[in-house]
User: Which sequence fits this backbone?
């Protein structure tokens, strides 16, 4: 399990690969999750051979922790991890998609293929 933590009293951020998710922990309590699924790119999709895709699917923050910046922290942590792994990102989650739009320094991680998924999944 990869992890990092911020200043004292802040949540601890971890990648729980066994459960395909990033987690924000306050002590032993999970207060936020960012679920993902890894995919091998199909042949001929325009990505370099061996580049894997991580689909960031859903971000959930405990209601009592909403507005504290935990969602942003877990997205940044996930994207930094993905960059370190040399992977690309598909932001299926609306929160992740909006976060990347506001933080363009992560736009280079976005899936860029000739057949990116449109609204009907093709």
Assistant:
């Amino acid at each position: 399990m990869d992890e990092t933590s911020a200043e004292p009293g802040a949540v601890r951020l971890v990648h729980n690969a066994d459960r395909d998710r990033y987690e924000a922990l306050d002590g032993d309590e999970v207060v936020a999750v960012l679920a993902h699924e890894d995919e091998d790119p199909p042949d001929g999709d325009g990505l370099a051979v061996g580049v894997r895709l991580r689909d960031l699917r859903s971000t959930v923050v405990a209601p009592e922790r909403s507005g504290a910046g935990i969602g942003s922290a877990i997205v940044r942590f996930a994207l930094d991890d993905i960059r370190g792994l040399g992977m690309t990102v598909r932001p299926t989650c609306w929160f992740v998609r909006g976060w990347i739009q506001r933080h363009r320094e992560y736009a280079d991680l976005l899936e860029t293929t000739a057949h990116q998924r449109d609204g009907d999944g093709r």
User: Anything to note?
Assistant: The chain has a mean pLDDT of 83. Residues 70-85 form the longest helix (16 residues). The helical segments are 70-85, 94-102.
